[in-house]
Amino acid sequence: MKRSNAPIFWLLFGAGGMLSALLGTALVLITGIAVPLGWTLPTDWMSYPRAQAFAQHWLGKGFLFVVIALFAWHAVHRIFHSLHDVGVHAGMAAKWVCYGTAAVLTVVAAVALLTIGF
Amino acid sequence: MSNGKASVRRPYVRPMRGWWRRDPFFVRYMAREATALAVLVYAIVLTVGVVRLAQGEAAWNGWLQALRSPASLLLHAVLLVSMVVHAHSWFDIMPKTMPIIFVGGRKLTAATIQRIGWAATVVVTCAVVALAWWARA
Lengths: 118, 137
Hints:
The structure holds two protein chains of two kinds.
Chain A: H1 6-37, H2 48-56, H3 58-82, H4 92-116
Helix pairs in contact in A: 1-3, 2-3, 3-4
Chain B: H1 24-54, H2 57-67, H3 70-97, E1 102-103, E2 106-107, H4 110-134
């Protein structure tokens, strides 16, 4: 019997859902609102040298990769399973588009983070 | 079924358009599922960020500049609300998605699981913001 690949997607969905539930609010608040506005955090908080140092450290690099990849896999899994609810037939094409989006984001993030170096 | 002629029967097909607006339970369900769009958009924003960072200082500063635009701030305000809805709904359904846990021979109640989850979100959010503030110099 061919083994189902569902548990893999489900695991990524669950891990990403948990991570985004715990971290999503704080991250959006910091990178999207507080720093751009200079509100409680200085606008140079994400200046090039600081961002580069963060992304070059293995911990920062790993954090960025895990956040991007798991957020993406969580989101596309949920979107894929909601397609039927909004009247879109969720066939193989939809599956490829959804999971493909997450795969592309994962690879692009990995390549960029490796390009930034250590 | 078809005999080549256009059917004169017009069977009733229950319209499904706007089905989720019929019941508050469905509205909550759709709101919960819609948060996935926000999570995806934020993952894309961050991916663009690391790509721009890899491209050098000028590209990175362009990304920072874009984050300061009113459109971006509005987008992130929507993302922020969505993330809060996501965190709340994630732990709201947690009792149904996780295996039953027994503590001291008694089943852990749904309310306890939800409260632990929401408390964890508040604690982690405060900790991350505090860490960011501490690392501002």
